Amino acid sequence: MPHFTVVPVEDSATSNYDSLEGINWVDYRDTGQGGHPGHLDTVSSDGHGNHKEDSPFLSSADADRKTDFYDRNLALFEEELDIRPKVSSLLSRLVNYTNITQGAREHEEAENTEMSLRKVPKVRTHQNYLSLLLRFKQALTMLTAISMSAIATNGVVPAGGAYFMISRSLGAEFGGAVGICFYLGTTFAAAMYILGAIEIFLKYLVPQAAIFHASDHHGGDSAILNNMRVYGTICLSLMAVVVFVGVKYVNKLASLFLACVIISIVSIYAGAIKSVFQPPDFSICMLGNRTLVRDQFDVCSKTVLEGNVTVPSQLWRNFCSSGNMSSPQCDDYFNQNNVTEIQGIPGLASGIIRDNMWGDYLEKGQILEKAGLPSVDFHGAVESVGLYVSADIATSFTLLVGIFFPSATGIMAGSNRSGDLKDAQKSIPIGTILAITTTTLVYFSSVVLFGACIEGAVLRDKFGDAVSKNLVVGTLSWPSPWVIVIGSFFSTVGAGLQSLTGAPRLLQAIAKDNIIPFLRVFGHGKANGEPTWALLLTGLIAELGILIASLDMVAPILSMFFLMCYLFVNLACAVQTLLRTPNWRPRFKYYHWALSFLGMSMCLALMFISSWYYAIVAMCIAGMIYKYIEYQGAEKEWGDGIRGLSLSAARYSLLRLEHGPPHTKNWRPQVLVLLKLDEDLHVKYPRLLTFVSQLKAGKGLTIVGSVIQGQFLDSYGETQASEQAVKNMMEIERVKGFCQVVVASKVREGIAHLIQSCGLGGMKHNTVVMGWPYGWRQSEDPRAWKTFIHTVRCTTAAHLALMVPKNVSFYPSNHERFTDGTIDVWWIVHDGGMLMLLPFLLKQHKVWRKCKMRIFTVAQMDDNSIQMKKDLATFLYQLRIEAEVEVVEMHDSDISAYTYERTLMMEQRSQMLRQMRLSSAEREREAQLVKDRHSLIRMGSLYSDEEEEVVEPVADKNQMTWTKEKYEAERRNRNNAPENFRELMSLKPDQSNVRRMHTAVKLNEVIVNKSHDARLVLLNMPGPPRNTDGDENYMEFLEVLTEGLERVLLVRGGGREVITIYS
């Protein structure tokens, strides 16, 4: 039924319309079926589409009015036609009534006030980009160190460092993904440090050791890269051997490397102080305001004096094609500008810091220029470009962030070797924070000293072309440039060794946790625990970074991996702090969740600022690892914060759902599946789960419930085994949901408990799925079909929808595919639109996707079938459901002899079964009488539910005296047996049962005729009778209604609309 209000249209009067927004009730009153206006049947609602009948069945007072809607062909549904109207009545009112468009009026207010325009002056802001980089980097590293200190002091941190902290805080999936990224970052950092050491070695220590040489000016870069690849591979191999021999040798060399670094830093400070009094002689040559490559000439002058003759210099011959000064053919820029020589290191007292205060980013190929020097602007010849110092890459703030950030990646060095520390909880916070503080002071002071002592053109000269490839920092230092060269070389070698030491241990910790199965082999090592196989893989990956050979390309890659790790360290601290888990008790007290979130935000921003495409690649790698670990099902319970976060989110969502039931647009079946288990605790009908998985497709709530008969104290172990069996079957059938097994003394009581108590808060089921009681006709035990009907009544009373798949063993498995066929819907009465919604949901699954949908409805004698078909087609179009429509005419025919005879047989069979059960009970009593002269009897009626629910008649032994009067009464009952048989043969069927049987037979004839070859038939399920004495007849009616159909789904709505025509 669409989600709208229907309003009657008077002949000449104007109707008053109510707003449709939030209205869920529908008035099904039939004013055109002969009823009196004062006796209209209504259904109230609570405002959310939930009908609030006093009883789910008609009261006795309503029986007098049943002739108002009595129809011989719909006698099976007559008791509920007031709340489940005929389709013809519904469609006729869709035409005779007008629907109001949904939504409240939107009021638009025009703003006519003119805003005064304020002129904002454009100010060009220049910043010292190196200082800004340092501030940003140091703030980020300090925030991350605070978060890491809090996590590290919240318990023992074994080997694994950052990976261990993240995985135990955020779970195996996040820990594995970030751990692998951090491992790759550490490995590429080793490659970067080795490349840095080789660059120092080839440029400053032993330049003649180069194997490859440039054949021309354009081949210089490739020759340098090839040399770095060869020597980098050799250096990596030597370092790997040192690490393989033992980490103790790395620790011994670390002291030497640290001493070299300290000496180098002190020499820089000493040289800067010395430059105040005696700046070093370090000149650069300028043509106009352009910086010249110094190794292309010897004298910074256009002419030189040889004897008393002025002759062209080497610089002149570089710019001029003719050596004759009288008729020179020189570069235009060379002719118009003078050659000057300025100091590359003017000293601390020169005031050069004023010129270096502002940023000056260069494009690729742009010539380095010094502002302030006189220059006549000419393009000059193309051949002269190689004589100037130019930028080899385009520079920007984001690029420099990515290149410079690896200098801040050492904060994890201590945590990477947490397994080797005596007291990691104490050493990691103190060592990391002191190291960051020290490096921050060194970095900031170095930046200030460089800007105050060195010329800007020299600072931007990447390869030192203007100063004959000399190391500028080495020239500034005191007492010798070799102190800086040697210190830098050993510093990069030491950093590379530390990375090669930490990365294999990180990989080994990940492999030992066994969250990534194919890495399991890297968890093994030597007898002393050294990660041999992990070291081998680390060396191979580092070799890939060395083959890239360009520091500018390697640095952004590892920056992304390190930033990813820092981001999740901050996230882990923030999540644990906000959740306030009882185990979160770090000894480090100087942390706050706001600082962690700030650090996390800075990491994410820095990733995209430095290189957005590298950031996306790193996130994709981490995402794939996360999904792989999730797919493999890493069943690790580490008490992580994500699980706590999930619990908090679930609690918040459940509280939100408590505000009211879902809107009609959001309604979907939240299913409670009632399963039956056999004696071996195996699921008896697994295809029920198959059907539910096809219907749900992983969406919404699914609860699978079962009942074990007995006492809870005696059946707890059986309950656990049953739950595990059901969960295994749910996993096989790919049903995502929850399992609940209850123990009850009676099965029907257990089912009632499940219907009442399953779910939590707003996440409760609205639909029940249960199997059909097969073999109920052949069984003398009435408990199966009585339990079935009791469940139908419970779902009706609870306003829950009900689905009963009949012949469920013939339903398709998840591996089958229907390439053709139809899903037929027989819409007899309207009960909320369930019959429309269910085929649509089924067709979303690959099994049913190619099936077409057909909708049949029944027209009576007084219905216009042609108009009904048009109205139904219009209704389906508004519902956006594609289906074929057919209206089947059922004439009000007379009741056939077959119907009468079948009803008679049904009632005779019921009476016979009662007598058989009576005889069985008598035989049991006589046997007990012979045994001990006492009868075991039950309190209550012979046909009470209590007796029928007893599995063994000796369950409760109530000893009662067998008197003579009782014995005589039993003899009289036995003597009445022949009379009972004669009464059975002369039995006349009840007219109400005849009418119902007539409905079942006629509908079955029509359904079988139209839908005998359908893949699935959906049919309105009639409600059980008010009088419980006719329950067995009700089962017979359902059997007759569905005879001859392979797959049938009986559906009962839950008393609310579940589908709407509105968006």
TrEMBL record:
- Superkingdom field: Eukaryota
For the SLC12A transporter C-terminal domain, which residue ranges apply?
686-803, 817-1063
Q: Where is the signal peptide?
A: none
- Amino acid permease/ SLC12A domain sequence ranges: 139-273, 395-672
Give the record's keywords alphabetically: Cell membrane, Chloride, Glycoprotein, Ion transport, Membrane, Phosphoprotein, Potassium, Potassium transport, Symport, Transmembrane, Transmembrane helix, Transport
Give the residue ranges for region: Disordered. 28-60
**Lipid bilayer topology:** Multi-pass membrane protein
Q: Which GO terms describe its cellular component?
A: plasma membrane; synapse
InterPro entries registered for this protein in UniProt: AA-permease/SLC12A_dom, KCC1, KCL_cotranspt, SLC12_C, SLC12A_fam
What reaction does this catalyse?
K(+)(in) + chloride(in) = K(+)(out) + chloride(out)
Entry's transmembrane regions: 139-165, 177-198, 230-247, 254-273, 393-413, 433-459, 479-497, 533-551, 557-579, 591-615
State where it is primarily located.
membrane
Localisation? Cell membrane
Q: A GO BP term, please?
A: potassium ion homeostasis
Please provide an example of a Pfam family that matches this protein in its UniProt record: SLC12
GO MF term list: potassium:chloride symporter activity
Which family does the UniProt entry place this protein in?
Answer: Belongs to the SLC12A transporter family. K/Cl co-transporter subfamily.
The record's NCBIfam families line, in alphabetical order, gives:
2a30 (TIGR00930)
Q: What is this protein called?
A: Solute carrier family 12 member 4
Organism, by scientific name, is Oncorhynchus kisutch (Coho salmon)
Question: What gene does this protein come from?
Answer: SLC12A4
